[in-house]
Amino acid sequence: MDTRAVVTGFLNEVRSGRNPDAAGDYLAPKVLAHQLVAESPHTLERSPADYAAHVREFLRDYGVFELRVDELLVDGDKAYARWTQTGRDLAGRDGRPPSGAPLRQIGSACYRVADGRIVEYWIQSS
User: Fold this and answer.
1) What is the rounded CA–CA span in Å between residue 76 and residue 94?
2) Contact, 34 vs 120, CB < 8 A?
3) Residue 92 and residue 100: Cα distance in Å, rounded?
4) Could you tell me if 10 and 20 are in contact, meaning their C-beta atoms sit under 8 angstroms apart?
5) Tell me: domain 3-125, CATH 3.40.1280.10, correct?
6) How many C-beta atoms surround the C-beta of residue 31 within 10 A?
7) Domains in the chain: boundaries
8) Residue pLDDT, tens place only, 66-78
9) Is the overall model pTM greater than 0.85, yes or no?
């Protein structure tokens, strides 16, 4: 699969929450995930099973959510995606109980693909 097909499939099938267990179809056995923790760069290793569990956490916290891909740009082995995720507050925030109120998260990531799988990504969300 080419970069666009891998990233599109990953976002539509796995990151969307529709089929987290398909993560192994799109992610390499070891993926470097570059993200911000308390505004500091942090890199961790993710596996397909670990990423599937991460998506199930979204489902627990947001309920069945919508992931709308707002932009996808591809250049060689890299793809930049920007999305909006909407769901409901099922987990509570800042020590408050769950409210059921609508939640919206805006995020973006740059994915690097090698041998038909995502091997690395850089992510930001708010």
Assistant:
1) 41
2) yes
3) 8
4) no
5) no
6) 22
7) 3-125
8) 999 999 999 999 9
9) yes
